[in-house]
Amino acid sequence: MLAVLSAFGPRHRSLSLSDIARRAGLTLPTAHRLAGELVSWGGLERDPAGRYSVGLRLLELAALAPRGLQLREAAFPFLDDLHSLTRGNVHLAVRDGREVVYVETLRARAAATNSRVGDRWPMHATGTGLVLLAHAEPAFQAEVLRSPLERFTRYTITDPGELRRQLAFIRQSGVAVARGTITPDDLVVAAPVRDPSGQVAAAISVVVQVAGARPRELARLLTATSRSLSQRLAGAPARVVEPSGARQAG
């Protein structure tokens, strides 16, 4: 049953029964039986054409996840401020294995990257992923550096030595700034979000078009926002303050 649910993803939101069987590695009769049980429970929904999608029952369960909707609710006012100030794509992401998962996105009207909640990306290829990887335990960093690093554009860091140097710089500067790692014309700035114990639990980022972007101003804005959000998670009063010149093109 978990294999059936795992067949769905950001790029596979609606599946036929044969799609489910193939992606889950199940026989067609087994996939049919399990999908039917999930439909009865509410975990899947079936449209008139016979295609399946994730059901609302799973959304109810997701609301209980401390790194999901609860984190989104706390972060949304800060993300909304970022979105208004920068006019860019704004992301809130957490680590899941060697990937980052977007638990909240606010999209620009004209953006090359069509980000959605639930999207997954390799950690080395996104601003939020670089931040989370930079603050991960050394053993995990070494594991990622030993693994194949997928290239999306000519700017994607795929050399382990270069990535190691980039992670050290992110820890020193407090922010990640990357250009064109997934889409060539985009610039991303990301910063860590800390939980009440002081550990990095999430990351926030803003993606704008390279043309007209001011990364230093964005870095100051992301740093102030991440600090305020971390204070809110710790139970202290916090607000986002707009630095001068923070508004970005794109």
From TrEMBL:
Residues 57-235 form the IclR-ED domain. Pfam families: HTH_IclR, IclR_C. The keyword Cell membrane does not apply. This is IclR family transcriptional regulator. SMART domains: HTH_ICLR. Residues 1-56 form the HTH iclR-type domain. Coiled coil: none annotated. Keywords: DNA-binding, Transcription, Transcription regulation. It comes from the Bacteria. InterPro entries: GAF-like_dom_sf (IPR029016), HTH_MetabolicPath_Reg (IPR050707), Tscrpt_reg_IclR_C (IPR014757), Tscrpt_reg_IclR_N (IPR005471), WH-like_DNA-bd_sf (IPR036388), WH_DNA-bd_sf (IPR036390).
